[in-house]
Amino acid sequence: MWDERSDQESGRAVRRFIVGAMMKRVVAAIFALAIVTSANPTSAYVIQVATSIPATSLADDTELRGAVESAINDVLHHAVAFTPTVVTVQNARVVGNRLYILLLIVDRDGEETLKSLSAAPVE
Questions:
Q1: Which residues on neighbouring strands pair with residue 103, listed in sequence order?
Q2: Which one, 42, 48, 71, 122, has least CB within 10 Å?
Q3: What is the DSSP string of 13-49?
Q4: Do 17 and 63 lie in a common domain?
């Protein structure tokens, strides 16, 4: 037997279910949007660069210091597109008639990255 009241209640239940499902999606979308817009992605720059200078012209410490500083400044002005906060010489070797210098160049966010990597446990 057909009962009109039962059909109306079923229709209301279906509408409540659909509206509830839609509201959950809307709330989830708003929540996701809030997270995405509040996140502040940063770029951390940590690079290693090799440069070299002629070893034949390095007669004394003053000349060596000036040549190394000039090579480092050349890298910083021509090869790096960010403002470094740390520049360290990782290694230096004379091979043949050239002095090869390996530099580690880091910006402020890169410093934090290196700190967190050095504090992370090694597995």
A1: 49, 89
A2: 122
A3: HHHHHHHHHHHHHHHHHHHHHHHHHH-------EEEE
A4: no
Count H helices, E strands: the chain? 3, 3
* 104 neighbors 51 (Cβ within 8 angstroms): no
* Same-domain pairing of 64 and 26: no
Taking 60 as the threshold, does the pLDDT of residue 5 lie above it? no
Neighbours of 107 (CB within 10 A): 20
Q: Which amino acid is at 116?
A: S
Highest average pLDDT, of 23-32, 50-59, 79-88, 107-116, comes from 79-88
State the residue range of the domain holding 87.
46-119
